[in-house]
Amino acid sequence: MYELDRVVVLAGGLSAEREVSLRSGHRVQDALAEAGIDAVVADADSELLARLRADPPSAVFPVIHGASGEDGAIREVLGLLGTPYVGSVASACQMAFDKPTAKALVAAAGVSTPPSVTLPRETFHDLGAAAVIDLIVARLGLPLYVKPSRGGSALGAGPVHEAAELPAALLSCFAYGDIALIERFISGTEVTVGVIDLGAGPQALPAVEIVPGDGGYDYAARYTAGKTEFYVPARLPGEVAAQVARIAIAAHSVLRLRDLSRTDLIVDEAGVAHFLEVNVSPGMTETSTLPMALEASGHAFGPTCVDLLKLAATRGA
Amino acid sequence: MTGDQQPASQRQRIDPYVGQYAQRAVGMVASEIRALFAVAARPEIVSLAGGSPYVSALPLDAVGEMIGQLIAAHGEVALQYCTAQGDAGLRERICDVMALEEIRAHPDEIVVTVGSQQALDLLTRIFIDPGDVILAEAPSYVGALGAFAAYQASVVHVAMDDDGLIPEALEEAIVRTAAAGRRAKFLYTVPNFHNPAGVTLAAARRHRILGICQRAGLLVVEDNPYGLLGFDGDPMRALRADDSEGVVYLGTFSKTFAAGVRVGWAAAPAPIRDKLILAAESAVLCHSSFAQLTVREYLATQPWQEQVKTFRELYRERRDATLSALETMMPPGCHWTRPAGGFYVWLGLPDGVNAKAMLPRAISSRVAYVPGTGFYADGSGGQYARLCYSLPDPDRIREGIRRLTSVIETEIELRDDFGPAPGVR
User: Fold this and answer.
1) What digits encode the pLDDT tens for the residues A52-105?
2) Tens digits of per-residue pLDDT, A223-272?
């Protein structure tokens, strides 16, 4: 058994999800402390490499959300340093973080995902935005859901009910990234399924059902305690619950993810679950769903974090 | 958990008190803009956002020594409760400071507060019932709007131009408010080096503004954090210098000494002063004795007016760097104010470009500003951005404006492709 005498929780980063990441990081640090592990929270800044070199940690728990945290960049550097870390390797993160790529790979495994197009802003500029927008609406129909191809926390994302709303939605999206994923909006029950692998293979946690208020599951609904109701496990018929669990495991496996992930899905009125996206560094805040699902499945949050760190330390770089 | 053996679903709402908060707390939610400002605090970002003074220019060793001596000599007072009105010695010194703006005041008229922000809070508390009207410049200081919103005031904005508040617009707003069967409780104004607009109320307008308010029986709240930080000539004559009964003056040491000591004050007519003292007692019992005595000692023992000159020169250099960079780099369609003091330039963006919508791109381009929407009670003002030049040095300012220019150019291209951003003309 490896001693976890030096644990670093990586949190912060420079993406728009910095604040969320810091909250996640401090929650993980607190949970580790309750489980008897002293951890320090470190930012991904110019001092990080010197710090990791001077005092190599037993393992790192990365909870940086958004770019650099979830796109694999930081993990690539941890790999170069030979530092063990919790979570997926860089190459898997690159595929998972890019939503269109993740959708394509998961769809190839036979999982339903909403029809979509992925377009960079240059395409609208070069071909004429109005004509491209007309084509999108003609092909995908309405309503739609627009989001940056990379990123999280619903930043720059939103529904489009009428064609006239699409330009504004694209503007919001392009504020957060230069490539838009435009999906057919499927109404239904919004669920998210955590997957954890403590060494015995990936296991789906109970699905969490998300019931946001009037404004949808936007940034405020995600991070304001009380604005969203959650049901754990989701109020799904048994066969549908099994279906969403299978999809989450499939996404985790197809994308070659490691240790933990969280898959977001929508279950339509016919009871068919559709894959939306997968997160390699799921939120760990007080309002985040993965810790909720862990607790509901009997995995105390702190000890589970310790187990993941031990697994990483044992595995090595 | 899979299969048909689903356990009973548990409803979780995280916050068990969600149905119990007051109406005024309904809008207190997580926001994308706040999340972006969390990134802006990182050193990689050139922040033209926060309005922080450059405290590194203070003689920190001398201040540290002074504080040590203060505790050694007056520790039993500095570390004890005091009265809600504030330390008498400090209030005397505050009168000396206000004399620089031609205010003749007695220490009895002064109530020391936790920065001038607490004075704003207390004034709003004693004057405003939910729905009462406050007249305020358009745009207006975001901290004041926050205090007004906390007491559910209805803010009516009054237009400004390069000479500050427009008297005719003020008259019209008073008439319009009365015609709607409502009475404005006070006019809130930042006459000098306005936050965020950067403009100064012209001397010729000051008497007119006071006259209009006197005729309407409208109290004036004169918020003056930057009055001693003018780059040209002597400080302007304060509004309160000409109407001690109709004007409550708010001052602060945040910009002339140190924001961290959190010492401000209100100079108010006696009846208002009495209520402010009682309101302060219920809010904080008394203000920090330590902070008050620190400021008192600083004013008594340190060359504080020389320090203000140092600040002025430093900020002048940064203002010049800002204006020069804007002139050189900004694309057509942008326009901006030219402050004669203080911290802020108010940048107008090309038609159809929204500063709030543009902020994520700016942050990812590693430059930050405050979108204009924060300075209007109704969230309008998206076509403006506040640039604060007080903290970055001139080279960083130029780099920040270079990055901002590139961001705006991209936004112009997006506007041309997709049409105007929502919320702007």
Assistant:
1) 999 999 999 999 998 778 899 999 999 999 999 999 999 999 999 999 999 999
2) 787 788 899 999 999 999 999 999 999 999 999 999 999 999 999 999 99
Integer CA distances (angstroms), A182 to A114, A265, B18, B300, in order: 10, 16, 34, 65
Q: Which residues of A touch B17 (CB under 8 A)?
A: 226
Distance of alpha carbon A31 from alpha carbon A302, whole angstroms: 4
Q: Which stretches of chain B score pLDDT less than 70?
A: 1-6
Residue A110's alpha-carbon distances to A113, A195, A258, A269, B359, in angstroms, are 9, 19, 21, 20, 39
Q: Tokens in use for B402? A: 């270079």
Give whole-number Cα distances, A103 to A100, A113, A273, B25, B400, in Å.
5, 7, 14, 40, 38
Token pair listed for B67: 């504080």
Give the pTM.
Answer: 0.91
Q: What is the pLDDT of residues B337-346, one digit of tens each?
A: 999 999 999 9
Residue with tokens 């992925």: A118
Q: What is the bridge-based pairing of β-strands A39-42 and A7-10?
A: parallel
pLDDT at A136 exceeding the cut of 60: yes
- For chain B, which residues lie within 8 Å of any Cβ of chain A, measuring from their own Cβ? 1-7, 9-15, 17-18, 29-32, 34-36, 38-39, 42, 44-45, 357-361, 363-364, 366, 413-414, 417-419, 421-422
CA distance A18 to A24: 10
Tell me, letter by letter, the H, E, C secondary structure of A161-200. CCHHHHHHHHHHHHCCCCEEEEEECCCCEEEEEEEECCCC
What one-character DSSP code corresponds to residue B376? S
A222 labelled catalytic = no
Fill in the DSSP letter of residue A25. Answer: H
A277 is catalytic: yes
> Which helix (H) or strand (E) element contains residue A265?
strand A260-267
Whole-number average pLDDT of chain A: 94
Catalytic, A269? Answer no
- The answer for residues whose C-beta is within 8 angstroms of residue B190's C-beta and 6 or more apart is B137, B140, B141, B223, B224, B225, B226
Q: What is the pLDDT of residue B109?
A: 97
Residue whose structure tokens are 């939503």: A99
Q: Is A158 in the active site?
A: no
Backbone angles phi, psi at B325, to 5 degrees: -65, -40
pLDDT at B2: 43
Rounded distance between C-alpha atoms, residue A90 and residue A73, angstroms = 7
Query: Is the four-CA dihedral A234, A235, A241, A247 of positive or negative sign?
Result: negative
The minimal CB distance from B422 to the residues A168, A234, A238 is found for A168
Chain B partners of A229 at a C-beta cutoff of 8 Å?
11-13
Say yes or no for a CB contact (<8 Å) between A18 and B18: no
Strands B133-138 and B10-12: unpaired
CA atoms in the 13 A half-sphere facing the CB of B93: 23
